[in-house]
Amino acid sequence: MKTMMMMLALAFSFVSGCSGAGDTAQRVFADMSANMREMSAILTSVTDEASARAALPKIDAVRAKMRDCARRARGVPRSDAATEQALNAAMLAVQRDVMPAIAAAKQRLAAQPELMAIIAPALQGMENDL
Fold it and tell me: pLDDT tens, 25-77?
């Protein structure tokens, strides 16, 4: 959970503190939040060896979308104070709603080493996606 919170905070710092043109901070943050929710659903869905193996391409796809969000965020103009405040509130909501589900899924999977062995390589280095 600590890693995922760090990723979300890093994503927010990209979205709120970069200059450039293109996407809005809100759009990139919404996409990143959706990616985090999707990752939560994927990890929650892993209950046996078959579902763990089925989760691998899904994890890879979400990670690719996270990397794309990070790339897009680098081009987002710096937000005004009101937008930053709104994004802070949204980030707290994601931390409150999504992060506990991800942490619970990871804790459950950690108690099942045969499943964790299957998905751990797909999760390795995820903090670098942002």
Answer: 889 999 999 999 999 999 999 999 999 999 999 999 999 999 999 999 888 88
Question: Domain residues of the chain, as ranges?
Answer: 2-13+24-129
Listed residue (127, 4, 129, 6) closest to 70, CA to CA: 129
* 3-class SS of residue 63: helix
**Can you read off the two tokens belonging to residue 9?**
């905070």
Residue pair 8/32 in contact by the 8 Å Cβ criterion = yes
- Give the C-alpha separation, 29 to 31, whole Å: 5
- The single residue listed with the structure tokens 């680098």 is 74
- pTM assigned to the model: 0.80
